[in-house]
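Researcher: Please predict.
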Amino acid sequence: MRSLLRFSLAAFLVTILAIPARAASHDLPLDQVPAAVMKAVKVKFPTATVEEATKEEEDGVTIFELTIEVGEDDIVVSLKEDGTILEIEKEIEVKDLPPAITAAIKAKYSKADIESAEEATKGDVVTYEVTIETDETTRNLVLDKAGKILEDEEQMDDDDEDEVEFTSSFIVVESELASTGRNPFFILETGYQHYYEGTEDDKPVTLTITVLDETKKVGNVTTRIIEERETFDGKVIEISRNYFAICKRTNNVYYFGENVDIYKNGKVVSHDGSWLSGEGDAKYGLAMPGSPLLGARYCQELAPGKAMDRAEVTSLTDEIETPLGKFTNVLTITETTPLEPDLEEEKQYAIGIGLLQEGQLKLVRHGFVKK
């Protein structure tokens, strides 16, 4: 499924309000913290003083967060119940940020002031969470050690936070997922195909989306592969293989990743945008619900630094003219991504068909193709 970061030309997307899998955290008396958790912290930080603790559930796993004091540093350590350290976070002085981080921020926001910084360590991976002030906004950035910006989001006032949240965790029973099925806006059946035509820079663009007679195991889930093949001026520029599964009970369709081939002069030159649920911090997202809800916001892709598309249902009753005729009760989805904060796209969908158009790209034909 082409991501916004690569200026997507087509995707099967809709949304639903889903129940977050993460419960609210609550304070925990220190004498109720498991011994294994306390021991792990003391081993890692022998001189630490444990100040406070919290406990929460995340995707069915109990997580403990201990705030400790080491010298003059306040550090937050997240652990599993068995003492496995998941993440270590500590505030650092802006002057102590690596030069690559400062340079990357100044390159993108030349007049920005860096207000605060935090170092986060997960295993061997270190990232930096930085808050900056620009002339217009306050922004929260996440960067890797080399200075690559992984996330870039505008910081909202407390009064606005509830209005901009996107559901990022979904409760899914794996035994209920299937590699074949359909709902009003998504047909996950072998041989079903959409063909689109449009123009870009006065050159012809085509996109062919086909549900293949192929599956891929992602974790414990058998997913169906959908191929997207895009051409520009008669030449293939991208082929992606996308992995979907549908819930037999709710008809919600979930998105588990993609393998992307970017072409130049007939040769693959990049796999930019490829990701797979379960690899690194990547997690599956919601691709399409059995029933879309007006105003719902959710994450389609959850692969930090690679694919972070989000969607909002902005209409259920649009009317549009297409090469296939006039459609009413059209679903409109507005897509954004924290990787490109200024980018926004709209896509329209019809019941029983799926994606009708996106910008200049319009559906020309659809249906089952012969093998």
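Model: The domain at 4-20+169-368 is CATH 2.40.360 (YmcC-like fold).
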